[in-house]
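FAQ

Q: What does a record look like?
A: Structure on top, sequence underneath. For example:
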């Protein structure tokens, strides 16, 4: 009887498993047939990735390397197709039937956001959709709680995401070279900053865990600053500071994908935004806070970016910067011996230099020009002379500013 009962139990368990499997295959859910297909395609692409990585780093013939790369790319395309089908078949039906989780609802909403840009921005759509599908399956892999699979998956995931983010940044860099309107350029700038923030938030922490710690030693200080701006609601001042930090990190991570000429344009945009913030606020405390930010931004722009610039559009610009750099080096010598003098002279140099830049368009920047002059008077770098005279029988007060 004991043997019979065991046999009946075993048979029941066997048939229960068969029924359960068939149910999963017939009902397209996250763990159904689409999930099985994704799992199979995922295993194939991981094998192809590892094989390609081995051959790529070996001394094999070029033809063999090309064959391996093509196989990897083909399996990757099939893998993405399986995830795409899962979104349309399973998640769409669950959302439609109101049985989807919040994660699935959000996933479908994001999917349609990506699809929306296909007609007008195909290249951006191509990179963004691949990125979206990979993110979706990465979350699935994490939810499976299979440490061995996750450890195998992450190197492939990071490699692909790196290339996709770099592709997006290159695309935006090329767009900035086009003859865009001011509004469209502003949109591209925001996309660059959003892409950098997304990479540093989602990808960089995984890379920092996976790779050697000293690989990212140069950006740790900037990364810590960025994390401070990732919590809570940011005002305009903090938002600009966050973007400034993103640019500083990008100079280490995306040297080729975000060329120096594009990074320079991004810095110039932030300088414009900060000048506007200074003259648009009527609250003295906020204005001073924005002015402090401007000094930091001018320093970053000149020291971290322009000092690495090799090619200049005009020889005159290069000579002007060389003169600026020489003055800056002299001022730095005061830092350890007379810190207050160092800060005062550095501020004077930065404001005087930026004043030259904005004076090229006095009609547009007349407010900030006036602000700069007042600051230079406070710093003792400019003297205010008051004169008066009569014009057509009326008394007129006149101010004349001049350098000491």
């Amino acid at each position: 009887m004991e043997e019979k009962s065991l046999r009946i139990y075993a048979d029941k368990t066997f048939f229960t498993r068969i029924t359960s499997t068939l149910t999963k295959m017939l009902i397209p859910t996250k763990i159904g047939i689409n999930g099985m297909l994704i799992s199979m395609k995922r295993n194939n692409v991981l094998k192809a990735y590892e094989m390609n990585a081995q051959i790529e780093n070996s001394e094999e013939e070029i033809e063999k390397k090309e064959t391996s790369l093509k196989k990897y790319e083909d399996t990757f395309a099939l893998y993405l197709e399986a995830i795409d089908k899962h979104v349309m078949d399973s998640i769409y039906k669950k959302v439609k039937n109101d049985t989807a989780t919040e994660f699935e609802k959000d996933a479908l909403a994001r999917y349609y956001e990506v699809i929306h840009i296909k007609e007008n921005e195909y290249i951006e759509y191509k990179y963004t959709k691949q990125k979206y599908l990979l993110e979706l399956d990465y979350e699935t892999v994490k939810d499976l709680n299979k440490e061995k699979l996750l450890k195998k998956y992450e190197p492939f995931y990071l490699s692909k995401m790196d290339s996709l983010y770099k592709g997006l940044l290159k695309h935006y860099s090329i767009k900035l070279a086009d003859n865009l309107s001011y509004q469209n350029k502003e949109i591209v700038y925001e996309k660059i900053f959003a892409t950098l923030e997304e990479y540093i938030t989602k990808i960089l922490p995984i890379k920092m865990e996976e790779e050697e710690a000293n690989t990212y030693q140069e950006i740790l200080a900037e990364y810590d600053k960025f994390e401070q701006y990732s919590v809570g609601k940011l005002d305009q001042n903090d938002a600009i500071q966050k973007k400034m930090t993103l640019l500083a990190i990008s100079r280490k991570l995306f040297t080729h994908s975000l060329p120096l000429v594009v990074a320079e344009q991004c810095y110039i945009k932030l300088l414009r935004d900060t000048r506007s913030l200074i003259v648009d606020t009527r609250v003295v405390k906020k204005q001073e806070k924005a002015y402090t930010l401007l000094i930091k931004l001018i320093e970053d722009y000149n020291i971290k970016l322009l000092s690495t610039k090799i090619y200049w559009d005009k020889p005159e610009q290069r000579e002007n910067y060389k003169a600026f750099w020489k003055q800056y080096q002299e001022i730095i010598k005061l830092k350890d011996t007379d810190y207050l003098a160092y800060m005062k002279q550095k501020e004077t140099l930065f404001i005087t230099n930026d004043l030259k830049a904005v004076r090229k368009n006095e009609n547009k920047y007349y407010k900030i020009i006036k602000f700069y002059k007042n600051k230079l008077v406070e710093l003792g770098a400019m003297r205010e002379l008051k004169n008066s005279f009569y014009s057509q029988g009326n008394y007129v007060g006149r101010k004349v500013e001049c350098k000491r």
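Q: Is there anything notable about this one?
A: The mean pLDDT is 85.
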